[in-house]
Amino acid sequence: MDKSKTKISWRVEKTWAADVPGLRTFLLAEEHEFFTPYAELEAKLKLYNEREIEKSLLLSGTTLESSDYLLPLAQFKYLNIWEAVKCAALMAYKEAVSLKISPLVLVMDAPDASGFHKKALEGIILGSYAYEQFKGGAKSKEKKSEIFVPEIVFVSGGLDQPLITAELERLQTVCERVNRIRDLVNHPPAFLGPEEFACEAVKSAAACSLKIELWDENRLKGEGYAGLLAVGRGSNKPPRMVALTYEPEIDGDKKVPHVVLVGKGITFDSGGLSLKPGASMVDMKSDMAGAAAVLGAMEIIGRLGAKVKVTGILALAENMPSGTAQAPGDIIVMKNGKSVEVKNTDAEGRLILVDALQLGASLEPDFMVDAATLTGACRVALGIDVAAVLGRDADLIKRLKAAGEESGEILWELPLEKAYLENMKSDFADISNIGNSAYGGTITAALFLGEFVPEEIPWAHLDIAGPAYPGKKWKYFAPGATGYGARIMAGLVKNLG
Ligand SMILES: [Zn+2]
After folding, report:
1. d(Cα 74, Cα 49) in Å, to the nearest integer?
2. pLDDT in tens, 325-337
3. Is 276 marked active-site?
4. Whole-prediction pTM
5. What CATH number labels 3-159?
6. Which of 350, 379, 475, 494 is catalytic?
7. Going by CATH, does the domain composed of 187-496 fall within 3.90.180.10?
8. Domain residues of the chain, as ranges?
């Protein structure tokens, strides 16, 4: 196993005596009053700030008897302030690693600090992940085994210790599942095509008590899933579709809601014959981050249980140019009989999502959510920090945004403006796969999907093209995949129970 995935170990202690060795760390919020009881520490911090050393996050050598370090949070300016706690806790952890001090003692016995424990652990587990298995060749394997892993001690003070412990265990499961799917997104295209991704889903099903159903190219053909077949035609790696199901334990014949989650899984997107420029292609192994997020959510749900039924559908294909690839001008007749003119083969995500959404709709779910790295237009509109949510059901959108607030994954609603459907007209088919306007690409993509989701199904679409793969170090995430969306979808399901 890759040593960079070393399991983080932690425990909860009621108190921690000042003379017991360990890297003692207080987290302080200068502007946001998380830890008001530490007024005297704040006063000290101000003193340091006056000496213009506020830019260094870790203030070492303090004279405070009880702490080695103070972590001011105000320097992390995020819309969701808990993201700052995660960043600060990670910095404390990295300091403990570099100083080779164990345990790292996180003090948090303020009365209003109950949420703090979870956020700190979340920042540490997600933040200490890195995809490094190809770095440094064989030698790095030895080096990695030498990585120092400090234990974390959460000081609970007057808080309910068993409750905190249970919550932290739950959170650790969530973060470990998120890190696993980050691996899938980060794997190079040669290592993870549609077939390999489907195999990973088989492993997930076995490890997380989920039922699984698989579609190979023959079954897709037999059942009329034309979108996946059309997009997959250009690749020598045939497309796949996967459905994972979680069934809750139900008393008697009580009816529980059914949630369907759908993910776009383009394992590599060259653009097809509408080939992308070289530079835009470099990160395109990440074009399956939506499917990975759905898989991650299903793993979390399988491991932690839920009170609702959940089906996760993964649409998996590789988009390549070749003599067998679909061409601009080709027309696809989808399973429901609606025809699509492919004016640009790089707008392929929506074509494979149509199949998965139609399978999802056939299950008559109470809620349906899809996640996809769908449009570059979304990055232009919202940047890399924020994902878009669009849909026809205000309640579902509200629920998704609330789940995002909890996990620190911000969703911003864009309107599903029907007038833009005019831009999607085709002279030869029922609809075109791209709009004829240079603007509003995120909205037209969602409108296109909506054409294949029956009106009566509460449905929402997440365009995660920005934060799923920011293309640089971001917040507490190392460069590469962030697993964005898995926690939102798992949170939605949890809150429905
Ligand atoms: Zn594309």
Report:
1. 12
2. 999 999 999 999 9
3. yes
4. 0.91
5. 3.40.220.10
6. 350
7. no
8. 3-159, 187-496
